[in-house]
């Protein structure tokens, strides 16, 4: 049974259509990924779910109720634009956020300490927020959105600003929350992360849904097998070859998809004549590539 | 409601424990003590040494009676002035010169020189190391003056005692008629001072707490905490919590000041017999009006300042954009002298209905004269309606504008926020 049900929402700012007829559902015990480049409409969609923006059209239902502000206590929201009060002590800040979700003071304080211990921040509890490093502040921020044990967790770019160690720590926490039956909605422009974490994904671009569904079938259906080559030399000729459908060329790495029916050997022949090939493999294309195919542009720009 | 209380608590704690608040709260009482107690104390502690003054009286009119005229005593009961009449046949210049060197060597404190021509020239001279003790100067001057005048009166055939009686000053006692037929002794100085101090405190606190709302909104936007807070509360709850929290900070400050003021007037009353008495003569009614007008004025101005806070992105921008609002607060100060002279003039009465000015001007009018109940009620109603309007506008602007970061909003944009559903 879906915990969050978005049906045909749209939002315009003046003549600019930020979100255009978007629908999806998020279920308990799963991670739903909202993917797309910056400016695709992810944050506007989330702000509408959080009742911070009102949709021009469409409905949002949460826990089988039309979205309203009392439901906010059951959501854990980590906004993309996030910050803390710099002069507050870490523990006080967390207790304050807990109390804003109507947690009793003692409980908020106890839960905050548990989380701080878990994320290795126990010694920082009496420091002022501004004395913490960026990464530590980010972790405090994540604790703040999980403290009140929400049923729906909305994380907008949760990994930005985290080093690889902490990124893994947060990934583990997300997966653990999923196992414990929480519904998690994750918005990111980092496709690789989404591929590892999400059960279902939605790709949006310019406010419109490009693709949505369960992750595995998407990879099967849309991911044509592609060829990945590591090389040195000038590979700019590759995109002009007759058998190439799409080419994604970097300085010493390229990823191409061939037109149906064309021969891999012919392609390899061209490569051997023009550049120095270090490695060559064919594989299923990534979400990143699927997005490029469908949206016609690169998501990381 | 619980959420608003949580926000109020945070705002309150953060501001009350800030250095700025503590400093301002402590400085004002120190200032109050400074202007009331210290002058009184200083007079108490004035030098207990008698002054030795040599008198050179060439006219022969003064020296004889000066002893009986200068009867001032020190606190220990000893006479304040020890007078030595110097008689000499030598040339005056020489005599004065030797006396001056005595002063220089600190053997005597001063020389009072009365020339032979005093009756015509009306001039006497006083030499001393310290001539800035105006009380001593005045005492000496008066004493000699009285002796000379008495002498002239006698010479003209008048009895100085009768003349003295005839020319006694008439003193004007001013009594203020208050509501309910109560009367109390009051005069221009006490009226002016109590009104002026209250108006100044109103003006200061309205600016301080209004702009602190504005700055705190800008800070929340720039450190991006605002959306985190909006994850659990409505924009209107956040705004209400901030305004109420800062308002309570202001009231706390007033409470501390009142306690200090009461303590001073109780504990220090023996010192403050002169000005202090009328200064501290503040009725409870005045205090209640004061708090009422602070609270109402605060709501009005914090609403206006918070609109500026939402529309701007930095303190500097906000300072410029809030100039017109600050100028509105200055207007009552500009008309303060007019107000004290005639609190019921048509200009002042008119201004006391305009909501931007009424918190200060109506309060001052109530303090100084007795405006009709209808006038007060009308001005209160206009003020409260305006507060509701401003807070409603601020809430709209706040809801739409709080997440618009990065650039300063212009007027058309603010109008769009207000019209948005």
From TrEMBL, chain A:
Q: Which family does it belong to?
A: Belongs to the ABC transporter superfamily.
PANTHER family per UniProt: ABC TRANSPORTER ATP-BINDING PROTEIN, ABC TRANSPORTER ATP-BINDING PROTEIN NATA
Q: Which GO terms describe its molecular function?
A: ATP binding; ATP hydrolysis activity
Superkingdom of the organism of origin: Bacteria
Q: Does the keyword Transport apply?
A: yes
Name by which UniProt lists this protein? ATP-binding cassette domain-containing protein
Q: Recite the UniProt keywords alphabetically.
A: ATP-binding, Nodulation, Nucleotide-binding, Transport
SMART domains named in the record? AAA
Q: Please report the stretch or stretches of sequence annotated as the ABC transporter domain.
A: 4-231
């Amino acid at each position: 049974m879906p915990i969050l049900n978005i049906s045909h929402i749209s939002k315009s700012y003046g003549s600019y259509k930020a979100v255009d007829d978007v629908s999806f559902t998020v279920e308990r015990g799963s991670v739903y990924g909202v993917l797309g480049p910056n400016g695709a409409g992810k944050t506007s969609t989330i702000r509408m779910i959080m009742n911070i923006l009102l949709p021009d059209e469409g409905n949002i239902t949460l826990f089988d109720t039309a979205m309203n502000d009392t439901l906010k206590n059951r959501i854990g929201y980590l906004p993309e634009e996030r910050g803390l009060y710099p002069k507050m002590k870490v523990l006080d800040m967390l207790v304050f956020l807990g109390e804003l979700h109507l947690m009793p003071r003692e409980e908020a304080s106890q839960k905050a300490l548990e989380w701080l211990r878990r994320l290795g921040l126990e010694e920082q509890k009496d420091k002022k927020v501004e004395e913490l490093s960026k990464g530590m502040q980010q972790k405090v921020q994540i604790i703040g959105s999980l403290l009140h044990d929400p049923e729906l967790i909305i994380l907008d770019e949760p990994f930005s600003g985290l080093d690889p160690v902490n990124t893994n720590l947060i990934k583990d926490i997300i997966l653990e929350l999923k196992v414990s039956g929480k519904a998690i909605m994750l918005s990111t422009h980092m496709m690789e992360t989404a591929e590892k974490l999400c059960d279902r994904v939605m790709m949006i671009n310019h406010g419109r849904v490009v693709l949505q569904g369960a992750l595995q079938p998407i990879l099967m259906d849309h991911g044509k097998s592609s060829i990945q080559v590591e090389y040195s030399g000038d590979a700019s000729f590759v995109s002009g070859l007759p058998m190439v459908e799409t080419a994604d060329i970097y300085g010493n790495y390229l990823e191409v998809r061939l037109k149906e029916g064309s021969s891999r050997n012919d392609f390899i022949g061209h490569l051997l004549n023009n550049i120095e090939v270090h490695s060559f493999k064919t594989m299923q294309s990534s979400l990143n590539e699927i997005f490029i195919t469908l949206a016609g542009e690169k998501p990381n720009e | 409601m619980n959420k608003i209380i949580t926000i109020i608590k945070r705002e309150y704690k953060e501001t009350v424990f800030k250095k700025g608040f503590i400093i301002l709260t402590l400085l004002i009482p120190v200032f109050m003590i400074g202007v009331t107690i210290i002058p009184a104390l200083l007079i108490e502690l004035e030098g207990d040494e008698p002054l030795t003054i040599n008198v050179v009286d060439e006219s022969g009119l003064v020296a004889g009676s000066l002893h009986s005229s200068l009867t001032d005593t020190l606190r220990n009961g000893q006479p304040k002035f020890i007078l030595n009449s110097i008689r000499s046949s030598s040339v005056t210049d020489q005599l004065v010169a030797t006396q001056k060197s005595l002063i220089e060597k600190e053997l005597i404190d001063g020389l009072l020189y009365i020339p032979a021509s005093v009756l015509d020239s009306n001039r006497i001279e006083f030499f001393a190391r310290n001539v800035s003790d105006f009380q001593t100067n005045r005492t000496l001057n008066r004493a000699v003056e009285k002796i000379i005048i008495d002498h002239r009166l006698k010479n003209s055939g008048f009895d100085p005692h009768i003349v003295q009686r005839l020319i006694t000053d008439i003193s004007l006692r001013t009594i203020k008629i208050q509501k309910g037929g109560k009367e109390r002794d009051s005069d221009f100085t006490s009226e002016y001072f109590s009104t002026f101090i209250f108006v100044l405190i109103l003006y200061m606190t309205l600016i301080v707490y209004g702009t602190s709302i504005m700055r705190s909104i800008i800070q929340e936007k720039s450190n991006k905490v605002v959306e985190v807070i909006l994850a659990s509360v409505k924009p209107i709850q956040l705004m209400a919590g901030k305004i109420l929290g800062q308002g309570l900070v202001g009231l706390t400050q007033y409470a501390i000041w009142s306690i200090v003021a009461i303590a001073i007037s109780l504990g220090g009353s023996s010192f403050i017999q002169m000005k202090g008495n009328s200064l501290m003569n503040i009725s409870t009614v005045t205090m209640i009006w004061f708090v009422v007008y602070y609270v109402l004025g605060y709501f009005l101005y914090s609403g206006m300042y918070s609109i500026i806070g939402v529309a701007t992105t930095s303190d500097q921008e906000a300072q410029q954009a809030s100039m017109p609002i600050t100028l509105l607060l200055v207007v009552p100060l500009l008309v303060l002298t007019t107000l004290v002279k005639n609190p019921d003039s048509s200009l002042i009465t008119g201004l006391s209905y305009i909501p931007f000015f009424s918190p200060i001007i109506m309060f001052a009018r109530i303090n100084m004269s007795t405006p009709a109940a209808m006038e007060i009620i009308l001005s209160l109603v206009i003020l409260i309606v305006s507060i509701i309007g401003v807070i409603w506008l601020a809430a709209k602007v706040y809801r739409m504008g709080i997440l618009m970061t990065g650039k300063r909003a212009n007027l058309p944009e603010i109008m769009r926020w207000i019209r948005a559903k």
